Amino acid sequence: MSESPASPLTTADGVPLKVSLRRAVRRSKVKALLLVSPLLLFLIIAFVMPIFDMLWRSVDNPEVSAGLTRTVEALEGWDRQSLPDEHVFAALAADLQEGQEARNLGLLSSRLNYEQSGMRSAITRTARGLRTMEPPYKEALIEAHDNWGEVDTWKLIEREATPLTMSYYLMALDRQLTPDGEIVRAPENQRIHVNLFWRTFWMSGVITGLTLLLGYPIAFLLANLPLRHSNLLMILVLLPFWTSLLVRTTTWIAILQSQGVLNDVMVAIGVIADEARWQMIHNKTGTIVAMTHILLPFMILPLYSVMKTIPPSYMRAARSLGGRPFLCFRRVYFPLTIPGIAAGGILVFILSIGYYITPALVGGQSGRFITNYIAYHMQTSLNWGLAAAIASILLFVVIIFYLVFNRLIGVDKVKLG
Amino acid sequence: MAIPSYATRGERIWHYVFLGICALIFLFLVGPLLIIIPLSFNAQPYFTFSQKMLTLDPEGFSLRWYQDFFTSRAWLNAIKNSFIIGIASTILATVLGTIAALGLSSRNMPARGVIMALLISPMIVPLIISAAAMFFFFSKVNLAQTYLGVILAHTALGIPFVVITVTATLSSFDTTLIRAAHSLGANPTRTFFKVVLPLVTPGVVSGALFAFITSFDEVVVVLFIAGPEQRTMPIQMWSGIREQISPTILAVATMLVLLSMLMLTTLELLRRRGERMRGLTPG
Q1: I need a labelling partner for B6 at 20 to 30 A (CA). Which of A39, A279, A308, B111 fits?
Q2: Considering the domain A193-413 in this protein, what is its CATH number?
C-alpha cells in the first residue's frame, strides 16, 4: 500500500477518508452477504447437496468391495490367467455365507448382474446351496454354478472391487467393458440410450424450430401494434403460459385422440373416413404438437422483448432507400432480432430436452424422451446408478447450453409474465 | 400496425394474409384451452362433443363431472394437500427470497454472478433431474414421503421466481425516495412502512404468486418424493390421465383454467399498480 500524501483527507473525527470508506464498503458487503446467506444455506442443503449426491451415486461402487470383502482380499496377487486357488473359493463361500445370513446379497447380485447377466442366479443359487457344501470349495462352487469356473467371472469381481466405477456411464452410452477392460459397444438389442439421447435432441430441435416459426409472427405483431391492442393480445399468450401443464396436456389428448375432437371434425366434414382416423397421439406427432403448444410462450416472450427495442424508423429508412419489402426485412429487421431468436431458441431447447410429463403422457413408445428412461430406471428397473448417470449426462448438456445462454443474454434479464 | 400510405397492392394483400396467419396461431395458442370448457359439461363419459351437445340440446349437458369432483374423497384430499404444500412452500420461498434479494441488490454484493447463478439453478436444472437427486438425498435423511420433504423441495423450486421478480423490483427502486422521506422528517421505521414497503410489495406479491403456481402445478418432484399421504392435485390428475380416463379431469382442468385467468388478472393489476406508483405511466 502506498503512503498517502502529506495531508490526507479525513472525516470529521480524524480518520483518513480512504480508511473510512473502505470500512463502510466492507460493512455493507458483510451486510449483503448476511442477507443472502439464509437462502444460500437453504439451497445448498435442499438442492445443491442432492445434485452432488446424485453425481456421486453415478460413480459410487460399494457393492462388491463391501459384499465380497474376503474374496477381494484373497484375489490379490492372482495371475488373472487361470482359475484362482482354493483359498479364494473358500473366501467366497465365507462371504456368501455371511451375506446369506445378513440377507443383503440382493445389492451385490444385482450389481454384478448389470455387468454380466446370469450373475444374479449364480449368487443366489450358490448361496442357497452353501449349507450342504463341504470343502474343497473350488469343486463344490463350480458344481453349484458354472460361472465360478470361468476366469472372466473372477476378472469381473476383481475389476468391480474398486471404490469408483465408470460402468454406469458406459451403460448410459450403450457401451460395456470386456473382461480384459476394453470398451466395446453393447450388443445390438441392448442399445437404447444413445438412440434416445439423439431422439430427444432432434425432437427438441424440431420443437424449437416450430415454436420459432409460430412465435416470430406473433412477437412481430405484438411489438408493432399500439400498446392498447398489444396488451390485450398479450393476455392470449400469457394465459397458456399460466395454465397448468397437465391441463394443456389433457386438452391435447382430448383433441388429438382417435375418438377426439379433431378426428371427429375431420370425419364429419368428410376429409377422412370413419375407419381411417388419424393416429395423432401416443407417438412422435403427439409429443411434438403438445410440446410446441406448451413451449410457444417461452419463444414469444424473449422475441417480443427484443423486437420492442427495434425502432420502426429503421424499416422506413430502408424502404426509403429503395429496398423491396422482403429485402428490407431480411437485411435490416431480421438481423436485429437474432439475439431474441438465440434467447428464445436456447430457452425452449433447454426446457424441451428436460421435459418429462408431456412425453410420458402423449408420447407413447415412439415419442419418449431420455427423461422417461431416467424415471424408468428409478422406478421400474431400480438401477439407480444408471438413472443417476443418465441424469448427470443430461445435466451436463443442459449446463453447457445454459452457460451459452447466460453469456449471450444473462439469466437475470429473463422477464417473467 | 397500420399499413403505410406508400404500401403497394401486394403489400396490402400480404398485410391481411399476415394478420390471418397470426389469428390462426392465436387460435392454436388459446383454442385448446377454450375447447375443454364446454367438453367438461358433457353428459356422456367421452372426451369429445356428443350429438346432443352440438345441437345444443340441454340433455347433452350436465354438471355430473363437477359433482364427481366435489364428492370424491381422493380429489378433495388432493386439493387440501396442494394448498398445504403450496402455501407453506410459498411462505418459505418468499421470506427467504425477499431477504436475499435485498442483499443481492446492494451495490457491494460480492460474487454476485456466482451466487445469482446458484440461486437461479433450480429453474434451469430439468425437473426430472432435481426430482431424482432429491429422491436419492431425501431418502437418506428420512425426508422422502413426508410433508416436510415435499415442502422443502417446492420451496427450492419456487425460490428462483421470487429472487428474479423481487430483484427486478428493487433494481428499479429509486433510493432518493428514502432520502427524500428522511429530509421531510420521517424516521426509518416510518420510511420503511410508508415509502419502501408500498413500492416493493407488488414485486414481492407477484414473486409469491409465481412460487405458489410453481408448487401448485408441480408433478415430477411430488411423483418421486411424495408418499400416498401427500398426493396433490397434479398427481391426482396425472394418474387420472394415465389410468382411468374420466371426464372429471376435464372439470378439474376447466377450474384450473379459470384459476389461471384469475392469477393473470391479479398479476396484471399488480404490475399496473407498481408502474403507477413509480410514475411510469399516468393514472
Answers
A1: A308
A2: 1.10.3720.10
